[in-house]
Amino acid sequence: MAGALCMPAIHAAQADCSSPALRVRVRREFRSFDPADARGEDGIITRNLLAPLVRFAKRQGSDQWRWERHIVDNISEGDPKRYAFTLRDEGWRNASSVSAEDVAFSFERIAGFNGGLSDANNRQSWSGLKSVDIADQRSAAIVLESERPDLLTTTLPGVAGCVVNKSYVSGLSSGRFTFDPGPTSGRYDLCDVVPGDYAKLIKDRDWKGDKVEVESAIFRVIKDDKAAKEMFLAGQIDVYRPDLDVLKVAVAEGQPVTRAATSRTSILVLNQDGALANFELRRAVQLAVDRRAVGFAAYQDENAQVATGLIPDGWTGWSKEPLVAFDPDEAARLVAANPLSETLRIATFSDQTLMSMALQVQQDLTRIGLRSEVIPPEDGAWLAISNKTADILVTLTAPQTFGSLETFSYFTSRSDLRWNTNPEFDKMFETAVMQPNSEFLFQLQSLLVNSGVVVPMVDDHAAYVVNSRVMPAFNPDGQVGDVGSWTIVP
Fold first, then answer.
1. What is the rounded CA–CA span in Å between residue 252 and residue 446?
2. Measuring CA to CA, how many Å separate 489 from each of 61, 122, 237, 378, 471?
3. Which residues of 215-239 are buried (b: 16+ CB within 10 A; e: fewer)?
4. What are the φ/ψ torsions at residue 188 (nearest 5 degrees)?
5. Which end of the chain is more exposed for a tag (fewer CB within 10 A), N or C?
6. Sequential pLDDT tens for the chain (490 residues)
């Protein structure tokens, strides 16, 4: 087994992968390139090998994230419970054309239908799938149990939307693969993979879609950030994402740091029971947080984008104006009028970025006369509010690529998190489920802020050190994304 996995040139035996044009560092060993199971950095490789029906378009400036056709000629948007599509002419590597049957098999397999997988890691992405009804060789319709108007910017361009070759995958004894995807349909072929070391991709010469800018790429496993930094300086890699300590050094040394927006925002969740039961104290916390200082502490970015609400820039429902101001003087006045003898407990996760935010928030609270402590991170930080072990939780919203309502579902009374038990919010959420438009998304976040439940802080982003000859194209989650859309300047 190990020998087969390390065998060079799984698909492109005649291709020269010896000098990849783009060299990307990944943090951990590869686990699976199967769309059923791939996560994180593995998912980047998967989406480049096994094309989804649609993909995210390269974002320019402050434009909204949008989708574009990838291996479809067309796909309908009119009915959010039924997405009819027609595939364009695109072939499997060394095999027949991609068919509607391949698509149906791919999606239903992850959902667990018709003998599909019962334990796919990405099963939740297709939890609302009813069927994929095939019309002919190239046409079918994705039928959903309930309306999903955001399917084209969530599941379909994501890793669970990638299409596998039915003939190959259905013939595998386990019904899934780890690193060998069989015939590939994307802009790249898998040239060589050594699981604990690297994966090499090379352009598919038979690709019939849009132009591929980068001929080849290597994703090299480098677990240590300091080692990645040294390899970058030595010209051995082109792109790496450093941890906060190494990022600070890179910024101080003037290395070319590129900041990629993600689809999340950083927020504080305030416990409405206990020490912060008083609304005016919760309002004081909201007014006290210096968002720009939080952005610099967490991202080493003096120009970090202050979060206006729970939805970041580039997504439906984003508010142009902040829903709560930074006003430390008013915050101090509220604290003086409502003295608190207790020490507030600030919880977060064992994540360097979030911990830096928590420490900055602690400083901000000290300045307005509130004592606080950052308690040791625990696995159960998500439940720190419901368990009453914390008064403030520092966290990130769910990615918008999970759906525009995912974050807000955490604040309903049905959620086990118990962050909010407001009947008015529940009612508004149920309305938004039926009509998830900008108006209702704005109202949901406004209610949370105005009730003193949430403090929006900074739009999340990922910081990379990138070779000056490389023009990147990150995806909405701040990952490398579509390699074929990256550009290397001669």
1. 38
2. 20, 36, 15, 45, 7
3. bbbbbbbbeebeebbebbeeeebbb
4. -130, 155
5. C
6. 333 344 444 544 445 788 899 999 999 999 999 999 999 999 999 999 999 999 998 877 667 899 999 999 999 988 999 999 999 999 998 778 999 999 999 999 999 998 899 999 999 999 999 999 999 999 999 999 988 889 999 999 999 999 999 999 999 999 999 999 999 999 999 999 999 999 999 999 889 998 898 999 999 999 999 999 999 999 999 999 999 999 999 999 988 899 999 999 999 999 999 999 999 999 999 999 999 999 999 999 999 999 999 999 999 999 999 999 999 999 999 999 999 999 999 999 999 999 999 999 999 999 999 999 999 877 789 999 999 999 999 999 999 999 999 999 999 999 999 999 999 999 999 988 877 788 999 999 999 999 999 999 999 999 999 999 999 999 999 999 999 999 998 8
Joined together, the tokens standing for residue 215 give 């001929």
Which residue bears the tokens 């925002």? 265
